[in-house]
Amino acid sequence: MVTTTGGLDLQASFETTLEGIGLSPGMAHLLWLPLPMVLVLVAAVVGVLVNVWLERKISAAVQQRIGPEYAGALGILQPMADGLKLVFKEDIIPARADGLLFTLGPVLVLIPVILSWLVVPFGQNLLISNVGIGIFLWIALSSIQPIGLLMSGYASNNKYSLLGGLRAAAQSISYEIPLALAVLAVVMMSNSLSTVDIVNQQNGAGIFSWNIWRQPVGFVIFWICALAECERLPFDLPEAEEELVAGYQTEYAGMKFALFYLGSYINLVLSALLVSVLYLGGWGFPLPIEWLAGWLGQSVDAAPVQVIAASVGIVMTVLKAYLLVFLAILLRWSVPRVRIDQLLNLGWKFLLPIGLVNLLVTAGLKLAFPGAFGG
Amino acid sequence: MTIASTTQLICFAALSITLVVGAFGVVLLPNIVYSAFLLAGVFLSVSGLYLLLNASFVAAAQILVYVGAVNVLILFAIMLVNKREDLSAIPGLALRRVLSAAVCGGLFLLLVRVAFTTPWALPGPASIGEEATARIGEHLFSDYLLPFELASVLLLMAMIGAIVLARRDVYTSDVITGEPADQGLIEKARTPLLTSKP
Fold first, then answer.
1. What are the helix (H) ranges across chain A?
2. For an interface test with B, which of A137, A147, A348 has the most B Cβ atoms less than 10 Å from its Cβ?
C-alpha cells in the first residue's frame, strides 16, 4: 500500500471512530473492508442503468424519435424494467451445449471487469486499493476476458457463437497492444503505474496540465482501443447482427445474457473512467481546488473544505466519464461498422506503429523537457 | 493467530488445491478443450501464489502473458481446428501411460528430495513491496541485460518468421540459385470471385 497524505480519508476516520467505541484495530479494519467494495459494486450497477437509459434516449434523439417516456419521468425507469425482464426470463441451456462451460463463460467475462474497479480513483483516498501496479493490473485483468468469450462461444455448440467468440478474442488481443503502448507513454511521464500518482501528476495547473495536451495521439489511440475492447459499434464485429446473429451471445437467455450485457456496459463505464484518469485529470477540477480555497481564504486542510473538495472530485470524475460515454453512444449511432480485415489492419498496421512512435517521441520529449513531461 | 495470517493460510490452501487439481486435470482429461481451460485456471492460481508472496508485478505479468496471451492462443488454435473426432488408437497405450507416469513420479520424488534437503534460509529476505517494480527494471537493464536482449532478439526472429510464413506474395524462385521454388504448401493470392466474372 502506498500511503498518501492530504484529502479526505474516510478509512482512517471510520476506523478511529470504531476504535473509539472499544473495538480492536483489526476488527475495525475488518468492518471497513466490505464497505468500499459494496459501494463500488452498487456504483457500477447504477452506472449501467444510467448508461442503458442514455443509450436509449440518445439513440432516439439521433434517429429523431422520442425514446422511452412512460416508465418514470423521461423514461428513467426503463432500464429497471429491462433488468427485471431479464431476471424473470427462463434460463435455457441448449440441449447439445456444454452446460458447465456455458454457465462459466459469462461469469468469466464479468468478474475481471468488476475486479478492475479496484484501481479507479474518485479522489486522493477515495478508491478501494491504491495498489502500486494500478493501471497494469487493469491491463492484465482485461486480458482474461477473451477466455470467457471463447468459452461461451465454444460451449454454445453453434457456429455463429464459435465465430463470434473467435472474433472477440482476435479483436481483444490485437487492440490490447496499442492500448498498453498508449498507457505506457502516460506511465513514463508520471513515473508510476499507480492511478493516484498519474492523476496527481496532472493536477499541477488545472486544465492546462491534463495529459490530453501532452499526449493527444495517445489519447486518440487509447480511446479507439478502449472502444474496440468494449466491442462498441464501430468495432462490434463479435456480435455483428447481419453476419453472426448475435455472435457468442446467440444461445444465451435470461440472467446469463444479462451478465454479458452488464459486463459490456460496466466495461464501457470503466474505460471512460480510465480515459478520464489517464488523460483528463481524473478527479481534478479545471481550476486547482487549492487555488480556489486560497482565493476564498480557506485552509485546504479544514474539514468542510475537504468534504467539498472530495465531492467536487467525485462529480468531476463521473462527469468526465459520462461525457466520454455520451461520445461513445453518439459514435455508435452515427458510424457504420468496420469489416474484420479493416479492423485488424487498423489495429496492427496503423495503431501499433503510431503507438510505438508516440512512445519514442514521449521518451525523447521527457529527456529534452523534463519539466513539462515529468522528468 | 491474527486475521491477516489466517486469511493468508486459507488463500494458500485454496490456491494450492486449485493448482494441483487443475494441473492433474490438464494432463489427465481426454477433452483437449477442458485441458486448455483448466490450464488458464492453473496459471491464475500461480499468479495468486505470487500475490501471496508480495510479488504483485510478477503476478500481473503472469496473468497478462500466460493467461492473456499464451492460453488464449492455445485456445484459438484448438478452436480453429475444431474437429469433433476421436484420436486414432495408439498401439501399447497402457504401457506408454505407465512409463510416462513412472518418469513423472521419479521427477516428483527428486524434486521433493531437493526441497527437503536444501537448507532454506528462514525467514527469507524481507519483501520490498511496491518497490519491486522499479527493482525489476533496474536488474533487467543492468546485470540481466544480456538475457533480456537475447530474449528480445529471439522474439524478433520469431516475429519475422511468422510474417514470412503468413505472407502471400512469396518469391517464386530461389534467391540464391535462381531455380523455381516449390510453392506447393503456400496459399496463392486469389482474385475476388465477383470481379473476375463479366
1. 10-20, 25-32, 34-62, 78-88, 99-115, 134-142, 145-155, 159-190, 195-202, 211-214, 216-229, 241-244, 254-278, 289-295, 303-334, 340-345, 352-368
2. A147
**Are A140 and B63 an interchain contact pair (Cβ–Cβ within 8 Å)?**
yes
Whether B79 sits inside 8 A of A165 (CB atoms) is: yes
Three-state DSSP state, B175: coil
Count of C-beta atoms within a 10 Å radius of residue A369: 12
Residues 6+ apart with CB under 8 A from A197: A2, A134, A190, A191
SS3 B180: strand
**B125 CB-side CA count, 13 A:** 4
Predicted structure pTM score: 0.82
Strand-pairing partners, residue B44, are none
Query: Best residue in A2, A139, A150 to probe B by mutation, most B CBs within 10 Å?
Result: A150
Work out the minimum CA distance from B108 to partner chain A, whole angstroms: 30
Q: Tens of pLDDT along A204-239? A: 777 788 888 888 899 999 999 998 888 877 777 777
State the burial class of residue A51 (Cβ atoms within 10 Å of its Cβ: 0-12, 13-18, 19+). Answer: buried
* Per-residue pLDDT tens digits for A9-54: 777 777 788 878 877 777 777 788 888 888 888 888 888 888 988 8
Q: Which residues pair with B173 in a beta bridge?
A: B180
Q: Is B105 exposed, middle or buried (0-12, 13-18, 19+ CB in 10 A)?
A: exposed
CA-to-CA dists, residue B13 to B8, B19, B52, B158, angstroms? 9, 10, 11, 39
The three cell numbers locating residue A8 = 479526505
Residues of B with CB under 8 A from a CB of A: 2-4, 33, 37, 40, 44, 56-57, 60-61, 63-64, 67-69, 71-73, 75-76, 79-80, 82, 129-130, 133
DSSP, collapsed to helix, strand or coil, labels residue B173 as strand
Identity of residue B182:
D
Average pLDDT value over all residues in chain A: 83
Shortest Cα distance from A184 to chain B (angstroms)? 14
Complex ipTM > 0.90: no
Amino acid at position A23, single letter:
L
What's the CA gap between B198 and B196, in Å, rounded?
Answer: 7
Please report residues of B whose CB lies closer than 8 A to that of A173.
68-69, 72-73
Under an 8 A CB cutoff, do A137 and B56 touch?
Answer: yes
Contact B63, A141 (CB under 8 A): yes
Q: Are the beta carbons of A313 and A319 closer than 8 angstroms?
A: no
- Cell numbers 466520454: residue: A324
